[in-house]
Amino acid sequence: MARVVGSVVATQKDPSLVGKKLMIVQQINSDQQPIRFEQVAADTVNAGIGDNVLIVRGAGARRADKERDENQTRDVNDCTIVGIIDRFDK
């Protein structure tokens, strides 16, 4: 889980990132307190700054973008936003 804290604009980037919205996310715990570090995530759900989101990393992040060309074998994405959290129930 993470909170979107900003966005990144990069005009020069790897071709596998062209057309992807890049957001800065801060990982959070279930009490919505920041943990770990900020990182950049590709956004597949149109999240906005301040949204709490679900993120996936590694191979799951590379497979999360259904708009991706199936013939594209190289994808440098390692973190993807795959959902917007509506609420936390504990």
UniProtKB/TrEMBL annotation:
Official protein name in the record: EutN/CcmL family microcompartment protein
Taxonomic lineage from the root: Bacteria, Bacillati, Bacillota, Bacilli, Lactobacillales
PANTHER family attached to this UniProt entry: BACTERIAL MICROCOMPARTMENT SHELL VERTEX PROTEIN EUTN, ETHANOLAMINE UTILIZATION PROTEIN EUTN
Annotated PROSITE patterns: BMV
Record GO cellular component, one term: carboxysome
Organism: Limosilactobacillus rudii
Subcellular location: Carboxysome
Pfam families per the UniProt record, alphabetical: EutN_CcmL
Gene3D superfamilies: EutN/Ccml
Keywords assigned by UniProt, alphabetized: Bacterial microcompartment, Carboxysome
InterPro entries: EutN_CcmL, EutN_CcmL_sf
